[in-house]
Each structure stands twice: as structure tokens, then as C-alpha cells.
TrEMBL record:
Catalytic activity: L-proline(in) + Na(+)(in) = L-proline(out) + Na(+)(out)
Any one GO BP annotation for this protein: proline transport
Function as written in the Swiss-Prot or TrEMBL entry: Catalyzes the sodium-dependent uptake of extracellular L-proline.
Domain of life (superkingdom): Bacteria
Family (UniProt): Belongs to the sodium:solute symporter (SSF) (TC 2.A.21) family.
One Gene Ontology CC term in the entry: plasma membrane
Pfam entry (one): SSF
Segments passing through the bilayer: 6-28, 76-95, 126-145, 165-185, 190-208, 228-251, 277-298, 318-351, 371-389, 401-420, 427-447, 459-481
Keywords: Amino-acid transport, Cell inner membrane, Cell membrane, Ion transport, Membrane, Sodium, Sodium transport, Symport, Transmembrane, Transmembrane helix, Transport
Entry keyword annotation includes Ion transport: yes
The species this protein was found in: Psychrobacter piechaudii
A single GO molecular function term of this UniProt record: L-proline transmembrane transporter activity
UniProt name for this protein: Sodium/proline symporter
Protein's cellular compartments: Cell inner membrane; Cell membrane
């Protein structure tokens, strides 16, 4: 092992020890009940809630996918960053305060299926069961793909085997999630969010300095391909709309909006919004600038780059001391692991509350629910490792559409349930089913436009899914009986407490 690999491994080892240490700390700090393990006792500070939401949201896409998109497509990639920024801001503004208040009023709902069932007093349990199935299936596969990202990072950056990287990534995440639950996941997300932010500032800053500044880099890009500087290059109206529509997905992502449920007070939401949006904007700009500088750097050094999404790794290897390289690689792992831990906890919470407690042990004491939650973390991780065991596993293709699936199935349901008192259980069921089915058919139905273009390439699936789900909610609610007076009273209580 050479000095570079040793320096990188030292930095990564220190990072792993920090994550595990936070998990052990959270084990002794958190309340030993289901609300403490799955929701941190609703006591997250605004800073932790904001960075936890951001870190669990972005995953490796922030450091790998978005820079790669800028590298290959140019400044048109700004549209997707703009859509995400608008969507995240709207989520903080419209959903966060209402969901924080309403989930507590709705019989202290801990999971998203909990909230749906309690909000509409669904005695049939259909809302809880269907939403739990969606969460368990999508997130188990999503977790597998995230683990695969960790395996490939170890393989490409450290020369270690894919399977070793897979097990190391999963092992560290499972340890701190298993012991510390939501508090550990949120606290590690906070630390990981700080690491990701620093990486997104340091890498483009050093890259631009090496290239002679922003002006020299822009000139180099113009000489390579002037169209890379055209924000409308190759874009149609529907193409721009599809990129902006990524922001709609925020309303329905369980691993993100659960942070709103856990913040310690609705009065902390504005502070969390300012912190979260500042973090997000700086991180997105840094990611875009990394890809922008990367195109000029590759041209300048005459290197061959087969995969644009590895441009962050290129800068890590060539521009920094091994110890700093280790820190920057830890930033990629932080992005990957923060998402994995959040997904593991959401799935384990749903398995505990919406499957085990509902069907097997309705009177389960708090300690038993926590134990089942911890067992579920391990079981989901094992299944995810199995699914990710093949580096070329096809699960990655499914994950690319999970954002649209969650956004269409849950997004309108969450927003409208917080805004419209007349909405009822039938409308909720109709909206969830129509949204999910629309995305599945749009993506996997094999349908094409008259020009032979697949529908999802012509228009992002979340747009028709979100629209049709919203229509189904309104029609389903108006066509059936009004909610009970008790449900309306809870809605009014929520509005009073905002």
C-alpha cells in the first residue's frame, strides 16, 4: 500500500469512527420508546433538522450525478438545480409547519402512513397498508442502489473489491442506525451535511484556481463548445418543464418530510428553512461549478474521462494531498450513507408501526417496538446487500424513477391533506393509487409519442402523475361523504396552532 492510499484510508477510518461514535452517543441520549427511536422525540434543533433533510435528500447525486450532468450537458443543468431549489423552498413553506403541528394533533403520528391513517381516521387500514407497501418496496430497492454506490466508490477510488466496499458501507450505517435510531441518523446527517458543504466549496475553488480563474475557465469552455454556455441549448419547453418538475418530488419524499415531523417546535421551522435553503443553494452551485471546471480541466490535461460522473473523483486524486483526498472521499460516502441511513430508518419504522404492530401485536409495548425496529434495520440491510451484490444490478434503473413515484403517490396527498379540510379518506386512496399507477405506466408501460419518443423522455413522469393524483383526490373527496366533525375539528386545531 502506497502513501496516498494510506493517507486516504486514515481519513476514511477517522470518519467511520466518528459516525459510529455518534450512534453510541445517541443510544444513551435518546428516549427508549418508539417516538424516541423513530422520530427523535420530536426534539431536533432547526440546524440538525435542516442539514439532516438536505443530506438525506441529496445522496451521491450531489457530488457525482449533478457535476457529471454539468460536465456533459453544460449550463442547461441549471434548470434541474433551479427546480429543486424552488421545490425545497415550497416544501419548507407549505408542508413543514403544518405537518409538524398536524402529526402531533393526529394522535402523535410517527410515520407517514401513521399520519395518513390518523388524519382521515381510516378504520379499514387501507391507507396505512398501501402507503407502507409503497415505502417498503421502493426504499428497499433504493437502499440497495445507494449501497452499490458505496461499493463502487471503494472499487474505483481505493482499488478495493466492490463487495468489500458494499459490506463496509452497510456495516457502518447499520451500526449507528441500529443503536442510535432517528437521533443518530439525524445527527450523523448534520455532520455529513457539513462535510458535503465543505467539499462543495473546496473542490471548485481549488479547481478554478488551478485553471486560472472563472474567466479563463469560461473561455476554455467556449473554445471547447460554445453551446455549453447556452442555457437553452437543445431544450424544448417540455424539456425545461420536466427538469423544473423535479422540485415537485419534495412533497412526497418520506425520508425528507419526516424531518419536519421531528423538529422540536413549529416556531423553529423558519430558522430551519433559512439554514436548509442556504446549505442547498451553496451545495448545488458548488456541484455545478465542479462539473463546469471539470470540462476545462480534462481538456487542459488531455486526459481521457470515460464517465463524466467521476469528475469529482478526478479532482480529488490530482489536486489534493492524500489526507485531504480522504476527507473529500468521505464527503461522497457521507452523501451516500446519509441517504441509506434515512431510508433504512423509514422502512424499519414502517415495518414496525404499519406491519408488525398493526397485524401481529397491536398492544406491543414501547420497548418491543424499538426492538422490532432494530431487527428491521438489519433485515432490510441484508436484503439490500443481496440486491446490490451484483455491481451491474438492474435495480439502479428502477431507482432513477423512485423520486417520481414517491412524488406522485404521496406529494399531492401530503399537500392537499394539509390545505383542504374537505378532503376525505376516499380522495386520499384515489390520489395515492392514481399517482403511483400513472408513474409506473408512464415509465414502464412502453408507450411512445407519435414521433417514437418514450413518454418519460418526452415529459417527466412526475408531471402527469402529480396532476392526475391531485384531480383524483378532489373528485374522490367531493363525490363521497364529507369528513366527520371530529376530523374537521382537528384540521381547525392545526390551523389555530400555526
Amino acid at each position: 500500500m502506497n502513501g496516498i492510499e494510506t493517507g486516504v484510508l486514515i481519513s476514511l477510518a477517522l470518519y467511520f469512527l466518528l459516525m459510529i461514535g455518534i450512534g453510541v452517543w445517541a443510544y444513551f441520549k435518546a428516549d427508549n420508546d418508539s417516538a424516541g427511536y423513530m422520530l427523535g422525540g420530536r426534539n431536533l434543533s432547526p440546524g440538525v433538522a435542516a442539514l439532516s433533510a438536505g443530506a438525506s435528500d441529496m445522496s451521491g447525486w450531489l457530488l457525482l450525478g449533478l457535476p457529471g450532468y454539468m460536465y456533459s450537458s453544460g449550463v442547461v443543468s441549471i434548470w434541474i438545480a433551479l427546480g429543486l431549489t424552488i421545490g425545497a423552498f415550497a416544501n419548507y413553506l407549505l408542508v413543514a409547519p403544518r405537518l409538524r403541528v398536524y402529526t402531533e394533533i393526529a394522535d402523535n403520528a410517527i410515520t407517514l402512513p401513521d399520519y395518513f391513517a390518523n388524519r382521515f381516521e381510516d378504520k379499514s387500514h387501507l391507507l396505512r397498508v398501501i402507503s407502507a407497501i409503497v415505502i417498503i418496496l421502493f426504499f428497499t430497492v433504493y437502499t440497495a442502489a445507494s449501497l452499490a454506490g458505496g461499493g463502487k466508490l471503494f472499487d474505483s477510488a481505493l482499488g478495493m473489491s466492490y463487495s468489500t466496499g458494499l459490506w463496509v458501507t452497510a456495516g457502518v450505517v447499520v451500526i449507528y442506525t441500529l443503536f442510535g435510531g432517528f437521533l443518530a441518523v439525524s445527527t450523523t446527517d448534520f455532520v455529513q451535511g457539513v462535510i458535503m458543504l465543505l467539499a462543495m466549496i473546496i473542490v471548485p475553488l481549488v479547481a478554478f484556481t488551478d485553471l486560472g480563474g472563472v474567466g479563463a475557465t469560461t473561455t476554455a469552455i467556449r473554445n471547447i463548445d460554445p453551446e455549453m454556455l447556452n442555457i437553452f441549448s437543445g431544450m424544448t419547453f417540455l424539456g425545461i418543464l420536466s427538469l423544473l418538475a423535479w422540485g415537485l418530488g419534495y412533497f412526497g419524499q418520506p425520508h425528507i418530510i419526516v424531518r419536519f415531523m421531528a423538529i422540536r417546535s413549529v416556531k423553529d421551522v423558519p430558522t430551519a428553512r433559512r439554514i436548509g435553503m442556504s446549505w442547498m443553494i451553496v451545495s448545488l452551485i458548488g456541484a455545478l461549478m465542479t462539473g463546469f471546471a471539470g470540462r476545462a480541466y480534462v481538456q487542459k490535461t488531455a486526459m481521457t474521462l470515460d464517465d463524466p460522473e467521476t469528475i469529482f473523483l478526478v479532482f480529488t486524486n490530482f489536486l489534493f494531498h492524500p489526507l485531504v483526498s480522504g476527507f473529500l472521499l468521505a464527503a461522497i460516502l457521507a452523501a451516500i450513507m446519509s441517504t441509506i441511513s434515512s431510508q433504512l430508518l423509514v422502512v424499519s419504522s414502517s415495518l414496525t408501526r404499519d406491519v408488525y404492530k398493526l397485524f401481529f401485536d397491536r398492544e406491543a409495548p414501547e420497548a418491543r417496538q424499538v426492538m422490532v425496529g432494530r431487527i428491521s434495520v438489519v433485515l432490510v440491510a441484508v436484503v439490500a446487500i443481496f440486491l446490490a451484490s451484483d455491481p451491474d444490478s438492474s435495480v439502479l434503473s428502477l431507482v432513477s424513477n423512485a423520486w417520481a413515484g414517491f412524488g406522485a403517490a404521496f406529494g399531492p396527498l401530503v399537500v392537499i391533506s394539509l390545505m383542504w379540510k374537505r378532503m376525505n379518506r376516499n380522495g386520499a386512496l384515489a390520489g395515492m393509487i392514481v399517482g403511483a399507477v400513472t408513474v409506473i405506466l408512464w415509465v414502464y408501460g412502453g408507450f411512445e409519442t407519435s414521433a417514437g419518443v418514450p413518454l418519460n423522455d418526452w415529459l417527466y413522469a412526475i408531471i402527469p402523475g402529480f396532476i392526475l393524483s391531485s384531480i383524483a383526490i378532489v373528485i374522490g373527496s367531493l363525490a363521497t361523504a364529507e369528513p366527520s366533525a371530529h376530523i374537521k375539528a382537528k384540521f381547525e386545531e392545526m390551523e389555530t396552532n400555526l
